[in-house]
Amino acid sequence: MSAPASLLSAQPLVRPIGLADGRQRAVIDAVLPCVDNGRFAAKCVAGEPFAVEAHCFVEGHDMLRVMLHWQREGEASWTEVEMALKWNDEWHAQFVPPVPGRYRYNVEAWVDAFESWHHELERRVDAADIRIAARVGAAEILAAADRAREAGQAQDATRLQGWALALEARAADVGEDAALLKGQALDETLASIVRRYPDRRHATALKPGFPLVVDRPLARYSTWYELFPRSASPEPGRHGTFADVQALLPGIAKMGFDVLYFPPIHPVGRMQRKGRNNALVTEDGDVGSPWAIGAEEGGHDAILPALGTHEDFRALVKAARGHGLEIALDIAFQCAPDHPWVKEHPAWFKWRPDGTVQYAENPPKKYQDIYPFNFESEDWEGMWLALKGVLDHWIAQGVTVFRVDNPHTKAFPFWEWAIGEVKRAHPQVIFLAEAFTRPKVMHRLAKLGFSQSYTYFTWRNTKEELVAYFTELSSRPGLDYFRPNVWPNTPDILHAQLQTGSDAMFRLRLVLAAMLSASYGIYGPAYELKEHLPRHEGSEEYLDSEKYQLRHWDRGRADSLAPYIAHLNAIRRAHPALQRNEGLVFLPIDNDQLIAWVKQSPDGQDVIVTVVNLDPHHAQWGWLQFDPAAMGFGVEPGQSFQMHDLLGGERFMCQGARHFIRLDPAVSVAHVMHLLRKTRSERDFDYYQ
Amino acid sequence: MSAPASLLSAQPLVRPIGLADGRQRAVIDAVLPCVDNGRFAAKCVAGEPFAVEAHCFVEGHDMLRVMLHWQREGEASWTEVEMALKWNDEWHAQFVPPVPGRYRYNVEAWVDAFESWHHELERRVDAADIRIAARVGAAEILAAADRAREAGQAQDATRLQGWALALEARAADVGEDAALLKGQALDETLASIVRRYPDRRHATALKPGFPLVVDRPLARYSTWYELFPRSASPEPGRHGTFADVQALLPGIAKMGFDVLYFPPIHPVGRMQRKGRNNALVTEDGDVGSPWAIGAEEGGHDAILPALGTHEDFRALVKAARGHGLEIALDIAFQCAPDHPWVKEHPAWFKWRPDGTVQYAENPPKKYQDIYPFNFESEDWEGMWLALKGVLDHWIAQGVTVFRVDNPHTKAFPFWEWAIGEVKRAHPQVIFLAEAFTRPKVMHRLAKLGFSQSYTYFTWRNTKEELVAYFTELSSRPGLDYFRPNVWPNTPDILHAQLQTGSDAMFRLRLVLAAMLSASYGIYGPAYELKEHLPRHEGSEEYLDSEKYQLRHWDRGRADSLAPYIAHLNAIRRAHPALQRNEGLVFLPIDNDQLIAWVKQSPDGQDVIVTVVNLDPHHAQWGWLQFDPAAMGFGVEPGQSFQMHDLLGGERFMCQGARHFIRLDPAVSVAHVMHLLRKTRSERDFDYYQ
């Protein structure tokens, strides 16, 4: 034998990462939500439960206790919620953040000697084992009594001590009945006292926890209407004003919108001003692009005089509130060549050797009327502060929602800072990122703090595309931080599908947007009036786009989709299932032109099944697979149920899992069906109402 | 107007996380592999490329440069490899760690003014624009010249300066041809010099980078054979010895194994020793369970005298090496009641009030002959050091592979520390985790440092189960750190499928293990001799299990599967496609009893298609979907190819994407087919060989 003298080494013990003591045995393998391991904040809504899942375990058969901690940032203390094990080492708990703001949450886990003992004793049947276990438990209870006393809870301490001594005494009495002893040892009332004084000396927690941004409900569920105030005049040819917009508010509110969004309202540059249809030369009276911001009248903190004054604007904001509408302003951080900042802060722009600034380009698009900011400026601090000042200025005027133009062409660290700062002071403010760009870039912006994000919806047209995209949008990890806002059209995007002007196509894209996504918007009145001519074949630009000229709209036209929009938005407002993105499940239907899905409210009470015919020309039919019994929607197997079509008004009597669907676009492009379950009494006498 | 006097706030600028300067504009959104954000190490193999992917971008249209850095831990300097953009903001590079050990890698990205300029100029056609661009570029090149000079590269500096001045001069000459000027500005030779001196002042990196464990190839690809040395005697009834095992080495090597693994070889406890078939009382001559470690002869550093001495053991290790076999030892950190440590270190065990230690249990299994260590011991440091001392002891005897028994019943922080320490000193050592437990626990052990992991393979039997499980095993995130080792049987698990003793079932489970997983093992000679009787109906325990008694095996039996095993292992050895887990793709085949998949080597040269009939009773047939042209396997569309069945020897002439397969288990349970592509010359004259 050549065994060494001793296995006991004298070498120092280098501890693994984060380990203070080898007895920190509880493992927290993961915490969800978790955006890039806590580098970025998850998002939720004030007044609603925020659910946290933690993957925790320990070696062997010992029992854990796991706590969820949360606090509003800056508060001294944390609130604690006990987590419960569901299955597969997944522990769950939730809390309701009361008000918007920045919060933190974390998970703490420890191996609990009392729970381990309790759990083991429950399974003991052998009398000798029970007697020994009672003595082991008595020691644990005594230790808890000591901790109670240290915590100043003398009464609990005394009670636990009494229990421990009684157990000890009865365990020593060989005449004692083991079953009775076990019963006493498992006393639930006393156990609940012990549980108040756990031994957390060797608890594990993940430092420094996870950030959470809590928004108000509008961030989760919103319905947007975009219009150009300058086209709001009821008289053809007259420049619209804020007062004109004010007159439109009742009609917009009647359509069921809650956010009214304006393109930039600032003075429009005169240098390099664009003419109609993006012409490089202007004609008399050309109003230019509102995104060419700034002229001698002022820049990002000024208002185009033709629209009105700051006072008019504040009056409009107030009037909109009265109609349940919030005004969203477009934040486009760029300057017309005659923006005052170009002269005042030349360091914020990138000058070329010929003394010019390279105008903005997004090949093949050229924006000769726009100078981009230079985010490599030596004076980046001054520029950042000024840009954030723009946000502060409009917040001071009552604006609480910003739609940010092309955020992906401004430095990403700027947004993290600016949104973070603004929301620290004004947690109610909502930012929508207008970034139609590569997927990772769009996700980064959402991580950096944008409350909502534009999406690829406009270009997701087939069933396969829609199913894949909305499955992604309603799944982790994006679900935790990326809130989609889907738009069937924008002033920049007239999709080829709409260029036919097909009434059915305009309706079906609306139904898809309104029923698939908790937030959606349209650019009107172009949408409800089915404006559909492109600037030229193959272009996604509108002909005679409002981006470059005033337009006069006949809002009262008989074929306007306004009543249909109002109907869809009323359905959204009445059904919580439609006001969130999680819980979306696509349903099989054996026709590629028919797409079907179900959404449910968190409490499972509200269930909406939508089926859309993607073919605007022909009736399509097929068999829908929908089994409310198997999906846990409160229908017993074999029981009949009703599907109430909220769009068409029909009530379908259904049973089983397969249902025949036929949709003729000449009649209706979609069913939006509310699942009606009958109570037992209704089932008895009211079967065929 | 009520605009504020100035938007320029005097408030201090609070910077976002990790941002030193607002001009750090490059974003590194993710780095892959990344195990829990770098909390744990990814794994790879020395001498083989380790591929890293980084998701990097910047706002707008500027160009990035991205570098991969890597170093062996403890080295002062990093090696740098330029990453290349593939698509979707995904940058790729790889490096080859030369030897086993702990490494780190990281990614650095910066916005590169020269690349941005170069990229923009390439698209310029307007002569005035080109002239301005040439002057902009000249300034960038001059700056690079300065950096070259600072780096002591005077020659490069002079050359760049010359280029810059020439560009400047020609740009100023209005007679100069713009196309020629552009050509000179885009000179690739000179550009490559500029690229050596980038401006990294505002580079971004993720601190502190990502750890990497580099193993030797055996960690990736290994073939294990388990036997009980005490049953190795050729004479029935005699206790086997290391010398007996030595005599078996040629046969084991001939079967194609490279790891020979023994259950514990230590003195077996006498107190509470188990009898045959796990009986609580022993009869004369009962040898007990080798997992009941320790007796008066010694503990974890001792050898059961009946097996031999340390000298014999070292001789066996050496002889095995001569046959291409490494000895793997079972590390079971637990003690028989008469293990010396129980008396020497009572603090390492959990004593009950009656002066006993609670024996190990894994309900319903009871291990009355085993005391677990108490990982809550006050002397945890002493115990950790002693347990690691066991590993050091056997490493000193030449052992380089450990199979760790039930690691999930020992504290997780211990493994991270012990494996980390051992591998820092001995990077060649391989640890296999025998944890048949919940999925998150098994994954945690792999993250903590185990080189390989037992799996659920034994209980994945249907096509659906196998496809789902092996898809998971060959996918991220597990693929980066969890290396499966699959076992059709173990001394603890005789699966119900094998209890019929069906020759076809024993063969098909072998083919699944050997062809699906880069590492697999069997417990022999029980497997090759088709040992199949359970201890009782419904049990997964073997009847007359070697765990509790000596067994005598007739290794030369005519129906032994040894030649079949040798054949499978020879195929594995000849085909790199089978020696790794990534790149597995299951193929559609329209029969639920037939399962088919393709594996390919990293260079795409070696392609193996396996089809297994999961029904051991009946012939099964179906259409296999396999299109080597569409899968990029070097077959032109429409071209024929051969599939050479390495098991049966047939050569199938194939074309197109659908292939008829029929497998009769009476003939063969599987095809293991090597894709043969013909060169052009072969195609001309050798078509029907």
TrEMBL record, chains A, B:
Keywords (A to Z) from UniProt? Carbohydrate metabolism, Glycosyltransferase, Transferase
Reactions the enzyme catalyzes: alpha-maltose 1-phosphate + [(1->4)-alpha-D-glucosyl](n) = [(1->4)-alpha-D-glucosyl](n+2) + phosphate
A Pfam family that this protein carries is GLGE_C
Alphabetical list of CDD domains matching this protein: AmyAc_GlgE_like
What positions does the domain Glycosyl hydrolase family 13 catalytic occupy?
Answer: 222-572
**A single GO BP:** alpha-glucan biosynthetic process
Q: Which domain of life is it from?
A: Bacteria
Give, as one word, the top-level EC class: transferase
Its annotated function is as follows: Maltosyltransferase that uses maltose 1-phosphate (M1P) as the sugar donor to elongate linear or branched alpha-(1->4)-glucans. Is involved in a branched alpha-glucan biosynthetic pathway from trehalose, together with TreS, Mak and GlgB.
What family is it from?
Belongs to the glycosyl hydrolase 13 family. GlgE subfamily.
Q: Note the HAMAP family from the entry.
A: GlgE
Any idea what this protein is called? Alpha-1,4-glucan:maltose-1-phosphate maltosyltransferase
